[in-house]
Amino acid sequence: MSLLIIDAMNIIRRIHEAVPGPESEERVADTVTSSLASFKRALKTHRPTHAVAVFDHGGRTWKHALYAPYQAHRKPMPDLLKDGVQSIQQALPKLGLHWIAIEGIEADDAIATLVQKWCQTNPQPVIILSTDKDFLQLLNDQVGVYDHFKGRWRDEAYVLEKFGVKPEQMGDLLALMGDAADGVPGVDKVGAKTAAGLLRINGNLERVISNADKVAGQVGANLRKGVEMARLSRKLVSFKTDVSLGLTWRMLSQNHPVDTDS
Length: 262
What we know:
The chain is α/β, with parallel strands linked by helices. It is built from eleven helices and six strands.
């Protein structure tokens, strides 16, 4: 028994970026075909008892209300790709795969909510299919993150090797270093290595802030100046998990085999 949660737009965008050529109907058609093949392969690889593909709904979320520049630099999705995403969504029921997109929250929030609700009801594994580093803060003995493209688990050893911290410190690391992809500000001139070093010494963000007076040089000065931004950034890299998804586990049940002909 297991739950597979597919971060749908993470998979689709990665595939679309890898398809050569300018934006065109042909490029989007290749993206649609490859994305559906990837979803099907994920179901075959992991053989979950329950599965769901989670999409971003689009529009403003609570994070935009909290910090206006959040994701402000992101380019809008091309119209052709929007049409392609709709085609993918229409095809997913043939794979026996339910999908959701919840207004007012990001797909990340819906995914974290699913993880929390699943773990509250049973001790069986949860697999998050995504290359988004934000999900690494959810890792534990029950929750795994799988890189579909490299066929590799992003486990505690991966997090330690890649970022120099434990999974439970990832949110604090991102709060300190910021995340340019999402417009999360972080603390000025505190990069990944510096942030990891601070967390190894102090354990968590609040202790880093409490001990900022003990940090010498420009890093210490920036920490003391950047307390507000660090705490704001911590909120921006967190997940909202008190939302209604309108789902039952029965809706996500994989009672039927994957359609190998579609």
